[in-house]
Amino acid sequence: MNKPIVPRFVEGLLKGRPTERARPDDADARDMKTAIELRAARLGSDAPREEFVTGLHRRLANAMADAPAPTSGRGPMGTRRQVVIGTGLAAASAAAGLVVGRALPGDTPKETTPAAPPAQGELQPNDGVWQAVGAGADLTDGQAMAFDLGSVRGFVHRNGPQLRAVSGSCTHQGCALWLDAAAARLRCPCHTTSFSLDGVTLTHQLPIAPAPLPTLQVRETDGRIEVFAPTEPA
Q1: What is the pLDDT of residues 179-205, one digit of tens each?
Q2: What is the DSSP letter of 132?
Q3: Domain 128-230: which topology?
């Protein structure tokens, strides 16, 4: 028994063979036209436009829905129309290079809500003291300065009358950040992550964005900039 017209036609398209002459009915002709459109889409691009693929699946799904329901006398194979449409969809999807498992119209997509970025925390040592990290006169508006107290390292940034201090350790794996003053960023040398001077995560190349840098309490008193930090063990 010869193969039905549409499967033979699609097989020829997939293998790049000249298609044979045939006398398709209206239903077969529509399926063959769909296969040609998909093949043309693949020749022009390895990834057909999303709206094209969505429209194609919708047309095929509608055709499947319009097919008469199988009766008990037709057996588990279903009607000829259902078999042809199912075969045409699978083969045509392969011709377009579609990914197996793409949702078809009518499927209920599983919605995934991106996790909210973690809030920026504050370092609150159990036994901390105010420690000087620099002179207030040395930190002009918009600038940042690095400090290392042994127990903690970080950066202080002046924005107008306000001071802000953040940790100097990357929240990914603890690499020591360096100050890129020209770009006003704190950069991690380990995994190309960068933070703003306020500690907000700006860029990264990791599957999950690193958390913002923890802040530290900071103040300016008697011309000194001080950070509340733990003391080193005696």
Answers
A1: 999 999 999 999 889 999 999 999 999
A2: E
A3: Rieske Iron-sulfur Protein (2.102.10)
